[in-house]
């Protein structure tokens, strides 16, 4: 069944608005569905609303490539791919249908499959950007072998709109796995980390591993025979696969509560006991969700001591959302910002006050 969704090219209006803002040196707050508006520092500026610029530009299932406009809801992109038996493997969250493709790339948020298949940036083949000089430019292309500007397209992933307004994105997509099986195994976090390493070394088709409470949740995907064999080896209790969607969408009970929510990126072998609060292990241990009212300095010190960094998803007063950058890296970011956004109008200060 093929579903038809609204398709509108709103690029001329958007480019005119960007050019006018640049001429007046008026900052722009790029907005899609605002599903991640609380992630990052607040931006004071004129709204550049991308939601009308939406729809599939081109899609060739045989080539595993789709190009969509930035205002397209992620849920619609997933529906189009699902109709063709394909998927965007990095699983960006839909956030109740509000998340857009542009926001998904700009935030770089990936779902539970990330350690096994790659991040959002790994599936970006090319993109169109609106520059602060009012130009409409393309980087990259629609095939993997087209490397001209390829790295610059991927640089947009995780840039939070600070480098330019994403107008279109071309993604590499993959066929959906033939079989999927999810298991729950009661064990400690320390034991879970050891088992995950063991399963990866054995080449088992694991595409999700999350420890929450007193249990390890595992997702297996691939051919029917390999998934069945791996499930027998791992053991545990079969569970509903909706767990992974709820984890991706932050709908699990763990994500509710008055505490600040932190996302830590650390080496997957680091023990959970070192973190000041209640934590859930995702990405096989490389991503930790932490609920804690400990001072931000304590959380970030714990992340740094483990060789990682921490991002605050529910910023409190006086708490910088993103981990502070070392001076040399901050200078590099500033130089990049000046090159790609010489007028400094796109989402100024969204990531850091100095950008």
TrEMBL record:
MF (Gene Ontology): catalytic activity; FAD binding
Keyword entries, A-Z: FAD, Flavoprotein
Pfam families referenced in this protein's UniProt entry, alphabetically: FAD_binding_4
Keyword Flavoprotein appears in the UniProt entry: yes
Superkingdom, taxonomy of origin: Bacteria
InterPro entries on file: FAD-bd_PCMH, FAD-bd_PCMH-like_sf, FAD-bd_PCMH_sub2, FAD-linked_Oxase-like_C, Oxid_FAD_bind_N
PROSITE patterns: FAD_PCMH
Domain FAD-binding PCMH-type, residue spans: 1-176
Keyword Lipid biosynthesis assigned: no
Protein name per its UniProtKB record: FAD-binding PCMH-type domain-containing protein
Native organism: Paraburkholderia humisilvae
């Amino acid at each position: 069944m093929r579903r038809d969704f609204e398709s509108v090219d709103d690029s001329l209006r958007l480019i005119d608005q960007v050019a006018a803002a640049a001429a007046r040196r008026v900052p722009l707050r790029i907005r899609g569905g605002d599903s991640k508006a609380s992630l990052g520092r607040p931006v004071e500026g004129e709204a550049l609303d991308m939601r009308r610029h939406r729809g599939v530009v081109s899609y060739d299932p045989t080539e595993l490539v789709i190009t969509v406009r930035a205002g397209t809801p992620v849920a619609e992109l997933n529906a189009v791919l699902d109709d063709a038996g394909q998927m965007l493997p990095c699983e960006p969250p839909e956030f109740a249908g509000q998340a857009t493709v542009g926001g998904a790339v700009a935030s770089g948020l990936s779902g539970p499959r990330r350690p096994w298949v790659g991040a959002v940036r790994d599936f970006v083949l090319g993109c169109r950007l609106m520059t602060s000089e009012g130009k409409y430019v393309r980087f990259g292309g629609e095939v993997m072998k087209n490397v001209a500007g390829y790295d610059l397209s991927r640089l947009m992933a995780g840039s939070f709109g600070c480098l330019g307004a994403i107008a279109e994105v071309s993604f590499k997509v993959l066929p959906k796995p033939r079989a999927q099986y999810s298991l729950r195994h009661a064990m400690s976090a320390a034991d879970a980390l050891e088992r995950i390493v063991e399963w990866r070394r054995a080449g088992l088709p694991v595409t999700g591993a999350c420890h929450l409470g007193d249990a390890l949740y595992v997702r297996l995907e691939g051919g029917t025979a390999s998934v069945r064999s791996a499930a027998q080896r791992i053991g545990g209790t079969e569970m509903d696969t909706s767990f992974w969607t709820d984890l991706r969408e932050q709908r699990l009970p763990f994500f509710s509560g008055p505490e600040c929510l932190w996302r830590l990126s650390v080496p997957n072998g680091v023990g959970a006991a070192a973190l000041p609060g209640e934590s859930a292990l995702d990405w096989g241990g490389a991503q930790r969700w932490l609920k804690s009212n400990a001072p931000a300095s304590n959380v970030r010190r714990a992340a740094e001591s483990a060789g990682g960094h921490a991002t605050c998803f529910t910023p409190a007063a006086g708490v910088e959302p993103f981990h502070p950058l070392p001076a040399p890296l901050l200078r590099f970011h500033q130089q990049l910002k000046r090159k790609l956004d010489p007028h400094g109008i796109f989402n100024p200060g969204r990531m850091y006050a100095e950008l």
